[in-house]
Amino acid sequence: MSDQAFARECLYVTLNEAEQLVAKFLADSRHKKARRNKIRNGRLGPQSDWETDLEGMSAEISACRLLNLYPDLQTETIPVYDMVSKNGWTIDVKTTKYETGKLLAVRGKVASRSDFYMLMIGSFPKYRCAGFASAESLLSDETLTDLGRGLGHALEQNDLLTLNEWKEFFDR
């Protein structure tokens, strides 16, 4: 396998059977708790809230595998961000099933809550890392876009840092 083919393949994660069970359990637990507490799902697509929660949790576990981090497994409170890097940067994972999908965030998202946003593309149980953006670059007025469901923040995949670029940034 060439170095380039290997690098592309490293961007893909397929959850194993145990990870799939954990993702389903966490998605179900967090879904029920959020709806019980009348927390509105910030999804921008037409899918159900439960599907959004399952895809989000599965993408988070996939992202953690790629970054060699441990996922947040608690269900008592809904985390503000999805993971913390080894050097303390907070990361919010976003997911879409569309291969050419954009990194999206709802309008009004607070930049101080997460340092970085990560886009995972796919559907349960297989995902691909499409890249990263800083909160400042994603949550700016220049990224406000209407994709048919009102204004939200959006960045194209070619505007994102690659996984290698992101890792190099943190290795400095």
Annotation keywords:
172 residues; 24% strand; three-stranded antiparallel β-sheet; single chain; alpha+beta; disordered N terminus; five-stranded mixed β-sheet; 5 helices; 34% helix
Secondary-structure map:
Layout: H1 3-9, E1 12-14, H2 17-36, H3 49-67, E2 83-84, E3 90-96, E4 103-106, E5 116-123, E6 126-134, H4 135-138, E7 144-146, E8 151-155, H5 163-171
Parallel strand pairs: 3-5
Antiparallel strand pairs: 1-6, 2-3, 4-8, 5-6, 7-8
Helix pairs in contact: 2-3
Mean pLDDT across the residues is 84
Spatially, the strands of the biggest sheet line up as 1-6-5-3-2
Q: Count the beta strands.
A: 8
User: Which percent range describes the beta-strand content?
Assistant: 15-25%
- Total domain units: 1
Order of helices and strands: HEHHEEEEEHEEH
Kindly, what is the distance between the CA atoms of the first and last residues, rounded to a whole number of angstroms?
Answer: 29 Å
Tell me roughly what share of residues is in helical segments: 25-40%
Count of discrete alpha- or pi-helical segments spanning 4 or more residues: 5
CA-based shape: globular
